[in-house]
Amino acid sequence: MISQIFILSAKGDHLIYKDFRGEASKDSINVFYEMVTALSGDQPPVVMSHKDLHFIHVRQGGLYWVASTKTNPSPFTIIEFLNRLAALTKDYCGSLSEKSVRMNFALIYELLDEMVDFGYIQTTSTDILKNFIQTEAVSSKPFSLFDLSNVGLFGAETQQSKVAPSVAASRPIMSSRGEQGGKNEIFVDVIERLSVVIGSNGVLMKSDIQGEIRIKCFLPTCSEMRIGLNEELNIGKSQLKGYSSAVRVDECRFHQAVKLDEFDTFRILKVCPSQGEQTVMQYQLCDELPCAPPFQLFPSVEKDYVNRVMIFLKLRCDLPPKSTALNVSITVPVPKGSISMSQELSSPDQTAELQPKNKALLWEIPRFPGGAQLSALFKVDVPGISSASLLEVGPVSMSFELPKQTCTGLQIRFLRLSPTQTGLSQRWVRYVTHSDSYTIRI
Amino acid sequence: MTDSKYFTTTKKGEIFELKAELNSDKKEKKKEAVKKVIASMTVGKDVSALFPDVVNCMQTDNLELKKLVYLYLMNYAKSQPDMAIMAVNTFVKDCEDPNPLIRALAVRTMGCIRVDKITEYLCEPLRKCLKDEDPYVRKTAAVCVAKLHDINAQLVEDQGFLDTLKDLISDSNPMVVANAVAALSEIAESHPNSNLLDLNPQTINKLLTALNECTEWGQIFILDCLANYTPRDDRESQSICERVTPRLSHANSAVVLSAVKVLMKFMEMLPKDLDYYGTLLKKLAPPLVTLLSAEPELQYVALRNINLIVQKRPEILKHEMKVFFVKYNDPIYVKLEKLDIMIRLASQANIAQVLAELKEYATEVDVDFVRKAVRAIGRCAIKVEQSAERCVSTLLDLIQTKVNYVVQEAIVVIKDIFRKYPNKYESVIATLCENLDSLDEPEARAAMIWIVGEYAERIDNADELLESFLEGFHDESTQVQLQLLTAIVKLFLKKPTETQELVQQVLSLATQDSDNPDLRDRGYIYWRLLSTDPVAAKEVVLAEKPLISEETDLIEPTLLEELICHIGTLASVYHKPPSAFVEGSRGVQHKRLPARAGSGESAESPDVGQSGPTEAPPAVIPSQGDLLGDLLNLDLAPPTATVPSVQPSMQMGAMDLLGGGLDSLLGGDIGGSPSMGAGLGAAPAAMPAALGSAPAVGGGLGDLFDLGGGVGMPTGAYVAPKTVWIPAMKAKGLEISGTFARRGGIIQMDLSLTNKAMSVMTDFAIQFNRNSFGLSPAGPLQVLTPLSPNQTIDVSLPLSTSGPVMKMEPLNNLQVAVKNNIDVFYFSCQYPLSLLFVEDGKMERQVFLATWKDIPNDNEAQFQIKDIHLNSDAASNKLQGSNIFTIAKRTVEGQDMLYQSVKLTNGIWVLAEMRIQTGNPNYTLSIKCRAPEVSQFVFQCYELVLKN
């Protein structure tokens, strides 16, 4: 059972504090803040305890969302709940920041009152909550250059106009009641996270993709929406693939509001989206990447003179030529005691630096077109080098973003609202693949 | 205009200003003012002075304003109870409002105001709301009962709210059902014995139906409640499992974990050969794997749980090794947990893959992670014999990197590998010796010294190496000093001619120049051993070492069982039982897994038929590791065994305690201690004992019968049947079973020794570790030698209570070492406390009365003895047979009250009051004692005696 819930700013200011059971004092906020700031990097921050009070927290939007308890509840329940609370706050207030929480504290208190009673979680569904909530959201300025949380998900707004501007999705869902500004928009995002391990011989050793379809809905009334996926989508490991270019996932899970009666034959998800953001489907694919991994690396590491290691990296992007990878960064562990580095890069927009503290060098490429090949040479000075030092040049890790791409090939065929919405409703479909953990061994 | 302006700092007279605004006529202004008040309240300012003004705003039809006022009330009512009464009328009126939102709001808020005077007024509205037509009001009222119970439990019972709450379990609305279940579960936790949540097949069916309809959070309440139910048979268990499995594909991980908990528990009841059992195992894997794709926080919690599941049922995830491979961007705490699970899952089938991964990890950046990875390689070698060679060569490669901490970790694990596979990999010693200088951590230094000492005969310059360590002897940590002492003594015994000077030097350093008692003691023991009998010294110091076990860090089985019942809770993250971190009565009940149907599999679940007619004696045998730990005087975690077990759960978990640096201590601390040495070394065959039919008593002890006979006791004491204390496979062919008895004032340990090996056994001797009541053998173990293969011999060993005393955990734990010509074996057993009840334990009535009053009430413990079909006289007679004396009997309203006393060998008096109601098979036993820790065990004796 949850004892208290509080939201703190990164500096430890009390933004929201609610006590549900009267069994712990308000001092616990400060206790928590001291503990969380004193935490060293390798301690699991998930559950912390002070005397007989236990804190569970998540960090979202730069804020601490904390629940305390004196009993033995499920941390899963509480973490899921705190994440939902943050998501709901975002839905109701438009964005998630210290400012938006401060501006809407009355609304958040009201939400909390309905969501939790005596520490028992009651509901987190916007459909149910909208029957009770009286307070109107106050939204912050629609767009601010400094508000970095707006850039987030699709660093791609520099791309062509086909992509919805990312700020469009960060506004309160309920504001339409008062003002005229609210558009009838719905966003459907297909987001995949890619984990790959490539062996030192260039062979793909392990790969998996975690994907999800997320809806962000600003439609005031609930009407049924039909989302058509690729008709040839196969689910399960045992499916025969034959010669078709079938899209396959191992396993999928659905939001409990999704109706699946047309899924088996037509691959259509039927859902009445509630306002706000929700994940309608999650899926995963292990070990069989339907396409080549997006990057191949051809490294060579040599000892040069007495005190220098030469690292020559050739990196090829195996995406189709029309696509581009963004914000590619490559981290290469270097031997202990490396002091300086000189590099030769192929274009001026790339950067590279040595981070002696992390024993690594970081090479960053803002844009990397499909089919291209880039190379770089790094000369790292390591005083007192030994032959074993070369062994320390360990697995290379990469992070990147592939806009308009899904690695599984999952596509949204259509998006239909029925009955047809009165007035204009805009529908957006966006795809993106993030690297989760992309490791290439040397 | 935004709300953030409310947070601006207080100016002088702000309260005054607010007061004016609160009393304004304009609604908008009032609302703004209340918002400001609440903003001040959030940042911690005291705005309680505004109480009357805020309460005045309560009577409004504006719901937004009303909610704000209620928010304020909840916060300040406690500090202003008299003022809070002002609000009561409005609350009561609101509870009658036609709008269900307002009715629910009023009842919810009233429950949160923890003021006694208000709660009185709450009862009537609450009663109405519990029967309200609107489900939203009913579900709020259900929670309100729990709130009220928290404030005033008696009131809730008197008003009959509990029954109404029980009725709500059958409500048509699933949300109401879920809240009723949650409220009842919480109330039931504070009344462990009440039958509040009367779980029977009908209610279970209702819950399962509601499960499909309610919200995700409601599903969690219901699943957690289901987990407390114990199905009647495997069929019911299976049908519940079938209806719970669909929850495994829920998107909310909390629902998934609660479902996993139910399945893990009920699975225990399914016969293993059932097809469905296999299906269920397969179904459990994917949801667990999916949890690992969540955020790191959830991943960590999931991994802690998977760690438990893997220990209990490794088969579930044995094919899923790959998902536990670490990603470079996992936080370190996730990496370390993953590594732990990888080792647990490592087997011959996947070892190549695992090893390749571990080797990669060993070159990563994070020091802690690299260390653990190196250690993991060593553990693989020990666990999977086929991989040992590859592991060793991998470790050697890593040593070549010369990275300081890698080298040190590698040496520590290589030492364990030497222990596991003697005479196989010693060729690498030369490489290890090259790195001697770079070792700066005590553990690595100690490991290296152990290696040098152990293989002194193969290392030409062993004496030089050890001598180099000796230079800074006093700057070393104790661990290294002890190890160095032992290593040099070993070296001396192997190469006496060249090292005499060295050994003298170290002995004098240890005994004369050191302040550390452990070091001095060990130094003296070696010194005496070497000076009196070098041959014996050789046998002790260079004795053959027991093998080390494959698995390390296993959780003790009874704790594991309990933790499995708490999957998905904080307990499963801390790996501690809830009683260890939850205050008060809540969660103290120990949960346990149900017993499997079908009797053939009792080994699988040790706690069989707790109240069955063939009750087994409470001979709990904790894991072997604890025993060894205590015998070695090592500070291990105390065993948490509280569940009586039939099968000795011989858990060799901590065997490798003896590993590494400590093996030679075995010689030092056990074999080497003078008393023990004497005991073990004594020639046992000399006694012409009359070992007739059991119960046999040594002839010379027959006289003692006369002494005891003066008390005139019939030998009616209950003696538990013998149980196996150490199975043959753990003791090189010797099986020992036994029990304890008190016969005519003499405590006896009845042993059956069975030789299941191929060769003859001789030279038996026995020794006890220090224990709570100073039990020790009163004579040598008399065994007619030799014990030929397949022969069983019954021996009775008289015990005295004059041995050294050390408090054990549990109190009645006894750790025993038995020696024969083959080896020394250790086991532990528990004796019934009735062994220690003396014959003159009958207290004078007056003394009894005075003592009973004198002992503080805090020391009183109450127990229930169930299913006894004896009248009070029969019970009293039976108890007298075990020296539990009835002093007085009183009959009040058909209830017999027996007042009884017991005296323990060490002079502790235990007073008891037993209440027997005619026709009720359950007795109530209250025990008072100045040493309350014995009460539990006295109660166990009562139960044992009465049931047999």
From TrEMBL, chain A:
Keywords: Coated pit, Membrane, Protein transport, Transport
InterPro entries, sorted: Adaptor_comp_med_subunit, AP2_Mu_C_sf, AP_mu_sigma_su, Clathrin_mu, Longin-like_dom_sf, MHD
Taxonomy, superkingdom: Eukaryota
Membrane-topology annotation of the record: Peripheral membrane protein
Family designation: Belongs to the adaptor complexes medium subunit family.
Domain MHD: 183-441
Species lineage: Eukaryota, Metazoa, Chordata, Craniata, Vertebrata
One Gene Ontology CC term in the entry: clathrin adaptor complex
PANTHER family (UniProt xref): AP COMPLEX SUBUNIT MU
Protein name as annotated: MHD domain-containing protein
Cellular localization per UniProt: Membrane, Coated pit
Pfam families: Adap_comp_sub, Clat_adaptor_s
BP terms from Gene Ontology: intracellular protein transport; vesicle-mediated transport
Automatic annotation (TrEMBL), chain B:
Residue ranges of every copy of the Beta-adaptin appendage C-terminal subdomain domain listed in the record: 837-947
GO CC list: clathrin adaptor complex; cytoplasmic vesicle; endomembrane system
GO molecular function: clathrin binding
Top-level taxonomy: Eukaryota, Metazoa, Chordata, Craniata, Vertebrata
Domain Clathrin adaptor alpha/beta/gamma-adaptin appendage Ig-like subdomain: start-end pairs: 718-828
Keyword Heme: no
Cellular localization per UniProt: Endomembrane system
Organism from which the protein derives: Cirrhinus molitorella (mud carp)
UniProt name for this protein: AP complex subunit beta
Positions of region (Disordered): 584-622
